[in-house]
From TrEMBL:
Transmembrane segments: none
GO MF: transferase activity
Keywords: Transferase
Keyword Transferase part of the UniProt annotation: yes
UniProt keyword annotation of Transferase present: yes
One Pfam short name: Glycos_transf_2
Protein name, UniProt field: Glycosyltransferase family 2 protein
Top-level taxon in the UniProt lineage: Bacteria
All copies of domain Glycosyltransferase 2-like, residue ranges: 26-185
Amino acid sequence: MFLSVTSGSSRSVVLDMSINSEEKISVCLLTYNHVHMIEETLASIMDQSVDGFEIIVSDDCSTDGTWELVQQIAAGDERVRAVQPPENRGMPGNANYAVEQSDRPYIALLHHDDIYRTDLLERWVDVAERHPDVAFVFNAYGFEDTDEVHVHPYAERVDGRQFLEGRLFSGWGCPVRGTALIRRSCWDAVGGMHTQFNLLADVDLWMRLAARWAVGYVPEPLISVRQERPEDYPESYSEFSWFRQRMLYEIHAANHLDYYDLSTLRGALAWWRFRGRLSADIFKWLTYAVVRRQKRMLETSAEGASEYEWASIGLVRNLYRKLGQMPLGWREPRRSR
């Protein structure tokens, strides 16, 4: 039996009520060059408290033995299916490829370097089943070897538009760390991940989903985050970079333009607020570079230039870059080994 639930003109989702919730889940685990972690991560997934789910491990053409190890694990557990795109596609391309291999109603999008509590899938699906207008469910996060927990004051069901406007649009951070249970019909409706946004494509995805549907939340640390990065992890994502900031600006701009009608007063005000916040953020980082004598930040600051910044920001950038050429005791860039 199929049940269609509608909570707005563009918020219809379809649920297959004829199968158990466990059998609706496709775990899509994205891997790349994490041979030293993947076995423990997979073990935490295979030890879940529910049965009937499948595990699709999509390896993005690893070169360190991850792919070979995943194949060995898959050969010993019928729930695990190892797949690999024909070429390295980056995180969003690999995510899209993994989801293409599945036909189940729920996608549990997971990553290769976290540890998952045994009731993760059970808790996620419970929220999704009880709130059929929810597009994705996420949770609080713990951090390995520490007592630190990131918990947010959200209800179990959060109005998507309030979440988008009040949280995702209001700052440059994102409370969702890239792991979530996603309703497949909603994933398909928005077209999956946009690959042009690279490792930040999940931020764009949460925005597009929240614009149309509600959001689910579990206020418990169901995931333990491991912060270790491989040696070839892009510096532009592991530390500050203008490239990463510009990517965030582009994601926010694209979603503001899709979400708001700029011909209305509300839309126009939201757009000008966004441009003001963007300009203030660039000014903040430029000023930080000068105060902290970060020469490389000034030398590469043009990489953060946005077509949406105020014209005055370009003048400030040029002035600060000229300061960076003066003998003022600047810190030289670290040399890679």
